[in-house]
Write a structure and sequence with these properties.
Blueprint (H helix, E strand, L loop, with lengths): L21 E2 L3 E4 L7 E3 L5 E7 L22 H10 L3 H11 L3 H6 L3 E3 L4 E8 L2 E9 L4 E3 L19 E4 L3 H10 L13 H11 L3 E5 L12 H13 L3 E4 L6 H6 L4 H8 L8
Parallel strand pairs: 9-10, 10-11
Antiparallel strand pairs: 1-2, 2-4, 3-4, 5-6, 6-7, 7-8
Helix pairs in contact: 5-6
Length: 275
Amino acid sequence: MIWPHATKSNPCMICGGTDWCSFGDHAVICRRIESEKPHEDRSGNLDGWYHFYEEKQKPNIPTRKIFSKSPLLNASSLIDSWRRNTAYGILRYQAAEFGVSFQSLKALGMCWSQKDRALAFPMHDQNGICGIRLRNREGMKWAVPGSKGGIFMPDDSIEQQEMVLLPEGPTDTAAAITMGFYSWGRPNCNSGGEIIRDLIRSRGIRKAVVVSDHDEIKRNGSRPGLEGALRLKAMLGIPSVIFIPPLKDLREYLKAGATKQMIESQLNQKVWSKK
């Protein structure tokens, strides 16, 4: 069968991406968000992950209209209404569960979508909030229909610094903020680059640290996290380095006792470059 690809008008319902991912009659093949059901191409190489519509953990999103035009979404207004109805207790509980600070989640605008029974994180582009990422209790992630791809950014309660850390995902961004860094989160290892590049220029950021997850080498020899980090680094146009935590990701490194001083010491031993 033919699997139509995600587009700007019909983004992937799992990661919110507007390319690469494909829709089938019974499942999405998402090429960014992993599941327990990998998809291989004809050569036997990993080519994404199945997310079946019939699974009991399926998010509360329409699946019969995936080929229709995405609904218009006022993401800023929706996230504001969810924030007003989110008790601080939810943020404090999630902060403890994620191993990050309450202030970091509050600054990132995390709130609760009662309709979706999921945590919600606003996504930003050069003009403000452009979409919403959802995450349910089982760890499944998807975007509110009508969302545009964006990055995770703290509000003005977190003071901008001359250096920005660029990890993957909102919880790793929260981990960086918890340690005292200024941080923007990429939606995944392969997107958000143009938004980050433009915001670096407009906000006068002088240095950047692209944080790659500590991915295992895939069966085809690839390391998606590192490869995505290298592509982003080449786009930035300012002195930058790539940092790979010794554990799975930045949040796990924080939970193991990592501090800002420890990471800065490791960064000082690296060669910074604009390419």
